[in-house]
What we know:
Blueprint: E1 5-14, H1 19-34, E2 40-48, E3 54-64, H2 75-80, E4 86-96, H3 97-103
Antiparallel strand pairs: 1-3, 1-4, 2-3
Amino acid sequence: RRLQMFAVAARVFAVPEDRAPACALLHAYAERAAALVRDASADAILHYRHDGRLCLGVYDYGLLVAGDDAAPSGVGAGVAAMPHELVQEEEAPEISILDLYEREPYL
């Protein structure tokens, strides 16, 4: 039996100092996360980077289903399409569940 495989993407956005764009960034995440399909999830983490900037990390996890051509659409990709400053981006298009737990120990 084959292990379950996942597509993983991590995107970190700078939270704007102005209130309206900061709220728009958080709203963009929340709105997209609420509309996720059953085989996908997204985490968001507010944190300060080493340079002192407040950032929102969006971490997408999508179950890859045999026979499907594409992974579930992630929240971070939708937020990245908006005019928010993308600070960091990393993708793992196919990772086993064992590697996922090793990579993301809090899951």
